[in-house]
């Protein structure tokens, strides 16, 4: 089959689909992945066709400082953020139609692209398969993950889940109107199209593990949890030489990174994390990410080969983007924002996590890791501005690197994850659609 995968957002929203695409290509399908220009090298390295989606993923994620300002504004503190997200989505709609060629036979859609891809599948009269990375269907088992997943009771959880779907419908309203006009489809609201799709009862494969989120018992048949999809990387890939040297020079360090979060907070977070590492007396690797974390002084921030940079402290290192699958098994613990993919990667490596959730679904995954016994108690990102932040983070680092119970539970979870084949489940579902 000629398959188009459409994924939009941050690295964690896109990278897992490179693993899915490579698996499908190995099975004999012709696969293209439509996403943002910044991920073109990632897509092509996996051997997939790259097709461009417009919009800058950073534009849909304001700085943490901007987020705090909007939330504190009254009334309707989130309105500007909603407008920002809706504008990002509206740009995606037109790009999706350009990415789909006339010979496309199947659409595979991420959480962000599914509400748009349904219209495209309708116009092209081809099937689509939704592949979300987070649970989005209402359930009594937990509240919507975007709200942190704090339980409101079974009735309250389901009601909140339905409300969250209506909020998403509002975000996609302008894009839906534009897209259906462009595709010469009759007018329909996002809610109408969503409910039509739900009534048809198609398969939906969720790319996370039941180790963290057991499949809700009140979900309809066809809503399946199949296991994680891991980002593709070359079988002969190696870590940068400076990073390999650093790992070999002493005991396993702690990894710290915020991925696509905390843009604009790099200087403050760098200082805080370095002080916490020193207080806990552990070596540390800081991944620069969108926050531009660094272990170096301002006078020592020149470019470095291999994407890794020493500081004046031999126990600290700054790195760029590297495969988590290669690095995480070699560290003592991971400290991060708890995006879905990063949380799963730490668990896959069998190392304890120190969760520092920022927003969206991150508090949900942080709480799941802690309840599993594979993580310390989450420290919300906003608490890193408190006077005792260095002490709290240092204490968490000490526990994560010395508590044998945390390590044992993380290792047990890793063994369970190793038995799952999420990409294989997608390949089998595609074969059924092709048959």
Q: What features would you describe in this structure?
A:
This protein is α/β, with parallel strands linked by helices. The chain has 2 domains: 2-133 and 172-228 and 420-434, Rossmann fold; 241-417, Rossmann fold, CATH 3.40.50. The protein has helices spanning 11-14, 16-26, 40-45, 64-72, 79-99, 114-124, 153-171, 173-182, 190-200, 241-248, 266-280, 324-327, 340-349, 362-372, 389-402, 404-417, 422-434; strands at residues 2-6, 30-35, 49-52, 106-109, 128-130, 204-206, 223-225, 254-257, 284-287, 308-310, 316-319, 333-336, 353-355. It is globular and about 65 Å long. The protein starts with a strand and ends with a helix. The model is unreliable at 62-77 and 297-307 (pLDDT under 50).
Largest sheet: 6 strands, mixed
Instruction: Output mean pLDDT.
Output: 89
What is the level-2 CATH architecture name of the largest domain?
3-Layer(aba) Sandwich
> Any idea what the CATH superfamily of the largest domain is called?
Glycogen Phosphorylase B
List the helices and strands and how they pair.
Blueprint: E1 2-6, H1 11-14, H2 16-26, E2 30-35, H3 40-45, E3 49-52, H4 64-72, H5 79-99, E4 106-109, H6 114-124, E5 128-130, H7 153-171, H8 173-182, H9 190-200, E6 204-206, E7 223-225, H10 241-248, E8 254-257, H11 266-280, E9 284-287, E10 308-310, E11 316-319, H12 324-327, E12 333-336, H13 340-349, E13 353-355, H14 362-372, H15 389-402, H16 404-417, H17 422-434
Parallel strand pairs: 1-2, 1-4, 2-3, 4-5, 6-7, 8-9, 8-12, 9-11, 12-13
Antiparallel strand pairs: 10-11
Helix pairs in contact: 2-17, 5-8, 6-8, 11-15, 13-16
């Amino acid at each position: 089959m000629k398959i188009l995968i459409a994924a939009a957002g941050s690295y964690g929203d896109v990278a897992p689909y490179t693993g899915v695409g490579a698996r499908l290509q190995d099975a004999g399908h012709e696969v293209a992945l439509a996403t943002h220009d910044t991920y073109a090298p990632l897509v092509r390295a996996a051997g997939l066709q790259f097709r461009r989606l417009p919009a800058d993923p950073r534009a849909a994620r304001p700085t943490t400082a901007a987020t705090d300002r909007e939330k504190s504004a009254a009334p309707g503190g989130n309105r500007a953020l909603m407008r920002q997200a809706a504008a990002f989505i509206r740009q995606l709609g037109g790009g999706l139609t350009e990415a789909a060629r006339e010979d496309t036979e199947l659409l595979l859609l991420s959480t962000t692209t599914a509400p748009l891809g349904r219209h495209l599948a309708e116009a092209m009269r081809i099937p689509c398969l939704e592949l979300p990375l987070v649970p989005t269907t209402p359930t009594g088992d937990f509240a919507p993950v975007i709200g942190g997943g704090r339980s409101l009771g079974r009735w309250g959880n389901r009601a909140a889940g339905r409300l969250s779907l209506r909020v998403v419908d509002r975000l996609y309203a302008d894009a839906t109107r534009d897209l259906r006009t462009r595709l010469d489809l009759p007018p329909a609201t996002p809610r109408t199209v969503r409910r039509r799709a739900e009534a048809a009862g198609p398969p939906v494969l969720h790319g996370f593990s039941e180790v963290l989120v057991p499949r809700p018992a009140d979900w309809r048949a066809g809503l399946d949890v199949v296991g994680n999809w891991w980002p593709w990387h070359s079988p002969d890939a190696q870590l940068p030489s400076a990073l390999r040297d650093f790992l070999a020079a002493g005991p396993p360090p702690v990894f710290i990174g915020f991925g696509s979060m905390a843009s604009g907070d790099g200087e403050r977070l760098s200082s805080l994390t370095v002080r916490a590492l020193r207080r806990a007396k552990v070596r540390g690797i800081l991944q620069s990410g969108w926050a531009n974390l660094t272990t170096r002084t301002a006078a020592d921030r020149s470019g470095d080969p291999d994407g890794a940079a020493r500081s004046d402290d031999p126990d600290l290192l700054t790195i760029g983007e590297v495969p988590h699958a290669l690095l995480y098994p070699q560290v003592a613990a991971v400290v991060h924002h708890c995006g879905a993919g990063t949380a799963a990667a730490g668990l896959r490596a069998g190392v304890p996590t120190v969760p520092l959730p920022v927003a969206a679904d991150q508090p949900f995954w942080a709480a799941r890791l802690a309840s599993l016994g594979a993580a310390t108690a989450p420290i919300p990102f906003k608490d890193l501005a408190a006077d005792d932040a260095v002490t709290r983070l240092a204490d968490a680092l000490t526990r994560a690197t010395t508590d044998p119970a945390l390590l044992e539970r993380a290792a047990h979870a890793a063994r369970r994850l190793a038995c799952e084949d999420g990409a294989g489940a997608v390949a089998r579902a595609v074969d059924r659609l092709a048959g």
